[in-house]
Amino acid sequence: MGHFSSMFSGLARSFSIKKVKNNNGTCDAKEAADEMVKDAKKKEMILKSCGYVYAEGSNNSASVFSKRGEKGVNQDCAIVWEGFGCQEDMIFCGIFDGHGPWGHYVAKHVRNSMPSSLLCNWQKTLAQTALLEPELDLEGSNKKFSRFDIWKHSYLKTCASVDQELEHHRKIDSYNSGTTAITIVRQGDVIYVSNVGDSRAVLATSSDEGSLVAVQLTLDFKPNLPQEKERIIGCNGRVFCMKDEPGVHRVWQPDTEAPGLAMSRAFGDYCIKEYGLVSVPEVTQRHISAKDHFIILASDGIWDVITNQEAIEIVSSTAERPKAAKRLVEQAVRAWKKKRRGIAMDDMSVVCLFLHSSSSSPSLSQHVQHAQHATTFK
């Protein structure tokens, strides 16, 4: 994967070049991405429901589970795409936590549009960079454009375009509704993490002494974080807690007790966008080693009652990988009932991405194994 030529070879496998030529004879990235989505759906490599993904020959496997809370419809949703971008060494995972009257529609829209948009922008960025430095070795010491730079630029473009598209969507009212988005792309031995909102990614790794340690990969973007609060106040927004919610900081309009959003970054929520709320992602990377075992992506309903260390211990002690996400959710439900008695339980969703193959994985011939009561692919 060091040279651009090897990256492009994977992109070409899933579609006919003739289908994705525009009038100038160049590859149309959007059409190419759409073709990849169709191909992945046909091969059942995209999971949008509770279940388990394990592709033959891949180091990756992922367990997914989501449970509705006590506030109405489940506004969480998730996605796992094995072989992302037709690259055998890539996988895309995401959790999206909607809020507001139209939150479940917003979350699903962002989930459905982000992967293909990211692929589109990734291809465009690769092409533009290749034109500037056609012989560039991305692993070289003198590289001007690193793989991280390319993914970060692609994510920034994607989140901006998805949010803009959502604002003008004719069938979804996202003025007072929005969603978080915590996503990961694994490419070989590197993971790229993008975070908008207060969902969280946590890595389970081994310490030098051999004990299992939790490493939080993302920042919970709450309004009281110094840099977030400074931006909001600079845009004439307000940040404060309600008297009956001590410790819960929310974003408010200058002169109205609305909307009271408990995060500082989100897609949608256009009623507060001019007052400091942004959809700009924090993008980071991490090189995976043999000591790194799995990554947990989860909505804030999990982290409200389960610590990072508790979460990785629950997953690591689950005998069968396909049941890992469900077991973590079940433990969080029990913890909620003990710690937050009398408070309506939030929706809870988890993706457990295992970073290395295991002999305990299901049959290698089976691409996707659905959990009990799992819905079909959409």
Number of strands: 18
Mean pLDDT: 87
The low-confidence parts are: 1-6, 12-26, 360-378
Strand content: 15-25%
CATH superfamily of one domain: PPM-type phosphatase domain
Name the descriptors:
7-stranded antiparallel sheet, 8-stranded antiparallel sheet, alpha+beta, 18 strands, Phosphatase 2c, domain 1, globular, about 375 residues
List the helices and strands and how they pair.
Elements: H1 4-11, H2 29-42, E1 46-47, E2 51-54, E3 61-67, E4 76-82, E5 90-99, H3 103-132, H4 147-167, E6 178-179, E7 181-187, E8 190-196, E9 200-206, E10 212-216, H5 226-234, E11 238-241, E12 249-252, E13 259-261, E14 267-268, E15 282-287, E16 292-298, H6 300-303, H7 308-316, H8 324-339, E17 348-354, E18 368-370
Antiparallel strand pairs: 1-4, 2-3, 2-18, 3-17, 4-5, 5-6, 5-7, 6-14, 7-8, 8-15, 9-10, 9-16, 11-12, 12-13, 16-17
